[in-house]
Design brief:
The chain is mainly α. The chain is 51% helix and 7% strand. A two-stranded parallel sheet has the order 1-2. Helix 6 links the parallel strand 1 and strand 2. It is globular and about 40 Å long. It starts with a helix and ends with a helix. About 13% of the residues have low confidence.
């Protein structure tokens, strides 16, 4: 289980580096119009999100001042995004890590979309920007359902890059900076 968690964390770091829904210039969250969710759906994942954070904390190292700063919500969303592409044993293991066993993937996606919306709508007094993206070696392609679910529920930008080109790092860093 620890190897799985470490593997998932490493896999998600790539997503987390770019995971920071997107907000349009008008200030509204770009959740797909095809997605229907209740504004309170996010409540279905609160305890799972908190449990993930509490499971993770003992495995983190503090900085030289004794502090830890993480975003369990970013990790939960990144893992949820990846979970959309999981199947069989991997899907079962990821559900355990997400503490979402018994939550249907559609419900999980709606809950995350609801949370993204809540974070955006409730953060008028602070400067909070949430953006998700997934980057894939351009020689491969995402399954359409996976890509569409991540666009619709997580407002994720899906991009292909040439991982052999050193400019890919700059491309991703510029996206994060923007």
């Amino acid at each position: 289980m620890k190897k799985l968690i470490k593997g998932l964390i490493i896999s998600c770091i790539l997503i987390l580096i770019t995971a920071c829904g997107q907000v349009s210039n008008s200030g509204s969250l770009n959740v797909s119009k095809n997605v229907e969710f209740d504004e309170n759906d996010y409540k279905k994942i609160i305890s799972a999100n908190n449990k993930l954070a509490l499971d993770l904390l003992p495995n983190l190292k503090v900085n030289d001042k004794g502090n830890i700063f993480i975003s369990p919500t970013s990790l939960f969303m990144a893992l949820s995004m990846v979970y959309n592409g999981a199947d069989e044993e991997t899907k079962e293991e990821m559900a355990k890590v997400l503490n979402s066993e018994g939550i249907d993937i559609a419900e999980l996606n709606k809950a995350n979309a609801s949370l993204l919306s809540k974070l955006h709508n409730e953060s008028k007094d602070i400067d909070l920007k949430v953006a998700n993206s997934i980057w894939l070696y351009e020689k491969f392609h995402f399954q359409e359902d996976f890509a569409q679910n991540n666009r619709d529920y997580f407002s994720a930008e899906i991009s292909g890059i040439d991982i052999m080109d050193n400019k890919s790092v700059e491309l991703i860093n510029n996206w994060v900076s923007d």
